[in-house]
Amino acid sequence: MGHQAAFHAPHGGADFLAMRKNRAGATEIVYDDGVARRMVWRVDGQQVNEERLSDALRASVCALRVVPTLYEELRKRAIAVEKVMG
Predict the structure, then answer these.
(1) How many C-beta atoms surround the C-beta of residue 61 within 10 A?
(2) Of 48, 54, 72, 76, which has fewest CB within 10 angstroms of its CB?
(3) Considering the entire predicted model, what is its pTM?
(4) What sections of the chain are H helices per DSSP?
(5) String of b and e for 30-44 (b: at least 16 CB within 10 Å)?
């Protein structure tokens, strides 16, 4: 991955967003609020544009409501995801 893959909230929260590859080689998005919530989504599609995904994660983690903003940013960029955990 040539683009930044992990982001922490700049506003002092413990929110964390990252992209990773699972054992099968599929790209996943991981969210952790640092307290109680951990969520994982699998990105649909074989060829994931990592730059667009990285931009969506960066924009989302800067928002106060990270998860709703993540869904909006993914929708704007036509990145389909499937919830795997959480």
Answers:
(1) 23
(2) 76
(3) 0.88
(4) 50-61, 66-76
(5) bbbeeeeeebbbbbe
